Amino acid sequence: MPGALQTGFDGEAKGADPRELDHAAERRLRRKLDLRLMPVVVFVAIMNSMDQIAVTFARLQGLQSDLHLTDVQYDTVLAVTYALYFSALVPSNMFVHHTTRPSIYIGCCVVLWGVITTLTGLTKNYATMVTCRLLLGLPEAAIYPGCLYLLSSWYTRKELGLRTAFLIAGGLMAIAFGSLWAAAVLGTMEGKLHIAAWRWLFFIEGIVTVAVGILSMWLLPDYPRNTRWLSAEERSLAQLRLAKDVGEADMEWTGASIFEGLWMVIKDAKAYFIMIMSFSVSLSTSFAVFFPTLTATLGYSTTVTLLIAAPPWVLSAIVGIANAWHSDRTGERFFHLVIYWWISIIGFVISLSTMETAARYFSQYLMAMSFSGSMLLIPWIVSAIPRPPSKRSVTIALMNGFTNLGFFVGSYAWKESWSPQYHPSLLISLFSLFAATAFAFIIRTMQIREKKRVERQEIDDLGKDERERIQKAAELEGVSFDDAFRRRRQLPNI
């Protein structure tokens, strides 16, 4: 009836300016997500980073001697986690996409990860330690890429950068202060209940992780279409804003199989450049694992070394969050990403050029800046491959896999025989970052060409899957298919 008021979200009256009321409802939805989803994934990221460095600190307090491990066996303990981790990444994220309850799946994987970490504290020899570290790769494969995919299923392209930055900043904080926390446990728990301190380290981390996993099953959302702690109006709004963001609904076409996303990635040349770029970036930043060792070359005591190793990561996290916020506001990703890689390149050059203490320490701040830019890698790639969600989930998993592969290869690039200058190591990082910049430019060029193709595309050129997603977007927005198609062509590239 003309002039009548319509009921909006939460029973509000929609009258003169419905768009403003829609924005208010959207802000409430986003706030609710930020308060429930973000704290969980950030804390999980912190615990994940702590777990990765726990074995290194446990070694300092007797793990290797207590289990009678040779140096080769210890290196195997560090590397064996990647065996199942790499093989499980893609299948796990494919399952995250196809399951209706990712909150339960991710939560169970966090609990399993915590149980295995706790059991690591009970190991008696090389065989039991290797078994625990090997099995740890299975649940860990679901966590980081699963959380990233979940974020991309709720936040628009202009919201995802800042949220991903907070997630990665949590990991950087673990690098910055993890050594101090581990030192506190190892220094105070030795002999408590006649248990070695390194075992307490795994017990405490494992128990905390299990508690977080149980809470995450309740706190994490599922998908916009079926999250139980949202009202029907909020679920509709969540789907609508994602459809408006890309011009297509975040859904699969009706005949899609579980392997559809994997097949689409295999056929997409852009995906190969994304994987190589991810490997190059992580290889260049593999110094992060050895950062205390690099800081020790400045010649200070162990305590001072641990203290001065933290500020570069704190600064990198703060700058990265500010950079992601600005990237979201402007809708630009590429230069917000590579500028910090170039700053890091300057840091590598300074480290290669001098052993002077102040300059060397300053270069470490610049080297850590590469993480400030890399926080935007996932948001940028999600913008490059936003639909269909199955393809996005596989791409995120492969990016995560090749990122960890780069760290794995990089772990052999910082040989003790090359200290204290580490010139070969720094050269590897330098040229890897040059390569990553080149691949990023290629991806950007392909993305621009893809946008121009979409702008020239006609309705008759659409495939069945694209038609279904645009039709669903039109239904969500309450417009015709033709209007939704025209709007899709006009959407900006991010």
Note the run of SSEs as H and E.
Answer: EEHHHHHHHHHHHHHHHHHHHHHH
- For the secondary structure, the number of strands is 2
Strand order of the largest sheet: 1-2
Mean pLDDT: 83
- The helix content, as a percent range, equals over 70%
Strand content: under 5%
What characteristic shape results from the CA principal axes?
A: globular
SS element count, helices? 22
Outline the low-pLDDT stretches. 1-21
| Terminal CA distance | 40 Å
Largest sheet: 2 strands, antiparallel
Radius of gyration: 24 Å
SSE-based structural type: mainly alpha
The multimeric state of the shown protein is single chain
Tell me about this structure.
With 494 residues, this protein is an all-alpha fold. It is 75% helix and 1% strand. It is built from 22 helices and two strands. The chain has helices at 18-60, 63-66, 71-79, 81-98, 102-120, 126-152, 157-188, 197-219, 232-246, 260-267, 269-284, 291-296, 302-308, 311-330, 334-353, 357-368, 370-374, 377-384, 389-410, 423-456, 464-477, 481-490, and strands at 6-7, 13-14. It has a two-stranded antiparallel ribbon. Strand 1 and strand 2 (13-14) form a beta hairpin. Helix 1 runs antiparallel to helix 6 (126-152). The longest helix is centred in the first third of the chain and has 43 residues, at 18-60. The radius of gyration is 24 Å and the shape is globular. The two termini are 40 Å apart. Residues 1-21 have low confidence and may be disordered.
Entry summary:
By secondary structure, this protein is an all-alpha fold. The protein is built from 22 helices and two strands.
